[in-house]
Amino acid sequence: MNHVDLKKVRELKAIKYIEPDQVVHATLPRKKSENDVGRVRIPEDGHETTDGRVHIPEEGNENQGEHMTVPEDGSEVQASPPWGLARVSHELKPDFTRVNDYWYNQNDGLGVDVYVVDTGINIKHVEFQGRAVWGATIPDGDKDEDGNGHGTHVAGTISAKTFGVAKKANTVAVKVLRSNGSGSMSDVLKGIEWVAKDHVQKNQGEDSIQAPAPYKRTGNKKSVANMSLGGGKSDALDRAVDGAVSVGVHFAVAAGNDNADACNISSCLQKVCTVLATTINDDRATFPTGAMFQILSTWIGSNTANNTISGTSMASPHVAGVIAAYVSRVDSGWDTLTPAQLKLKLINVAVKNVIKGMPKGSGTKNFLVYNSAPVHEHESVSKKGDGESL
Where does the record place Basic and acidic residues bias (predicted)? Predict the structure, then answer.
């Protein structure tokens, strides 16, 4: 568009503002180096390939997949989970040398759809147990598949049976980035619009996607969206997210890996959860961080592939999973909360001021997410440590 045409468009009463399109990318993890040898957690019954991917049999990893129901309160415990799961279920920071388990409610995520606005999802991966479905492919001419892996990894942290926070949630692929991990802001906006419309249609009884019957919910249907994307500030993106939130979609978004103040980026909206990363030692993550913030989750290449990567992309889905868990707990009343109300509840139950290395005067809050699952051992009643920052 030339300057003359641009001026004419700006003068139209129907046009509020114009901004240039821009490149958006997955918040990329650090590249694996020779120094990382031995840091990837390889299941005893699996193997690592030369590309760094870890493969496990369809029945899952014996150590990381062991779940035990605690009958008196309906909670479950997963032994030796990925450390991020253990972290979000303990108020006190676990001593990972002796305490490494994940406590959660057995129906966490049931009936909740979590939209993964990303590179797509390997929906046939055995870890999703049929609960991952394809929603929309936004880039013109692209395939209904994840050719990158980023979106699949994010989805696994949200809902995979071994690696996921909310193990009964459905994940919905909303592909806005191509296989190289990049895309356009205009496609991201279209993806968010699709999420909002799909959420509204579901609550009008018009499901455009189909989850397996055991994981469906009748009545008011809850939706969560995760965006682990990086790009410049965009008023259009702010308005799109705010519009989706206004119809009831809960959002978790990654703050990015450049250590900037989270409120300098477009994801700093009052009604969404903007997520920074922490390490296994409750330090603010700076990238590259090596083994201190490497998260194992689902991957592409096969239906059992897994990979270990790091970044705020990996922190945000922990929070999205916790949100899905909370809004699925119909007996608690949390399922009736608006996104703004739920964010306040998350802040109220979060553990305060335990993240080390937070920049002073940045305005970024020092809150760590907590899933409020009952924990029966090695816990104190005082709140002193937990999860990812909101």
Answer: 31-58
